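Thread: quick sanity check before group meeting

JM: Hey all, I'm pulling together slides for Thursday and realized we never actually wrote out the predicted structure for the chain we discussed last week. Dropping the sequence here so it's in one place. If anyone has concerns about the input, flag it before I start.
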Amino acid sequence: MEEIPMTTISATLVKELRDMTSAGMMDCKKALAETNGNIEEAVDWLRKKGLAKAGSKSGRVAAEGLVGVLTEGASGVVVEINSETDFVARNDQFQDMVRKVTSIATAADGDVAKIAAMPFPGKSITVDEQVKEMIATIGENMNLRRSAVVSVSDGVVAAYVHNKIADGLGKIGVLVGLESKGDKTALVELGRQIAMHVAARNPVALDLAAVSKDVLDREKAIIMDKNQGKPPQVLEKIAESSMKTYAKENCLLDQSFVMDDSKSVTQAVKEAEKVAGAPIKLTGFVRFALGEGIEKPKDDFSAEVASMAKG
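JM (edit): ok, ran it. Output follows.
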């Protein structure tokens, strides 16, 4: 087959091949030139040269993986990197990658694109390139999905990792910010307990003021609809009462504390001020649960077995 000049290869075709294989732009152009523009043959050409990294894996759903958590005094970061299977989460190479990405992510302040473009620790490649290299090495699709940072001006950021697989790595990662000039040891202990509470109770916001207006309006509309026909002043009192109930169920500061359900989180923080020796303000929290919000395909095991039986 006569090789066609690179100049005649369209940018659209190069992009399509690059999206399919994650190979470099010039490698894709070369592959298309070598195969006379045939994209399927170009994929094979790249694979034979060892240049096709992600290949068709990029279309697979990655909802497993790990959440990485790291705190350093007054700041903390949480990162989620997904894989296709839980098996990969127990792979030492994958764990090392998540740990190293987490170690540099604070500087990006939650911006995943910035993290992806940062140099990967110990190598002369970016984080994005490292992820693609791992896809080729392990053979599963992977995705640097999200990150968040919590920081305070004076105090501590505490953390908790649930379903921990290794230090700082697990299935649920929580950060809690406590603003205070009090004893740091006491603050860390309180923060860890509140982080455990957040992992268990999954609050939607710090307080009612932090809940989106759309959510509150929807809650009020439901209450009003249930109580149609009652006088306006009665409806107003019912709505006010329902908002307090909503806050107790969904807002961190108003929830009953999992460590002692006889008090709210706010009361627990107030009591802890005696031990810390200074006022404490719970400024914010972040909770990442692995794979939440990712639509996972439902496997039809019966159909799979039947198809295998047919040969």
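AS: nice. Residues 300-309 have pLDDT under 50 and may be disordered. The domain at 64-191+281-289 is CATH 3.30.479.20 (Tetrahydropterin Synthase; Chain A).
JM: adding both to the slides.
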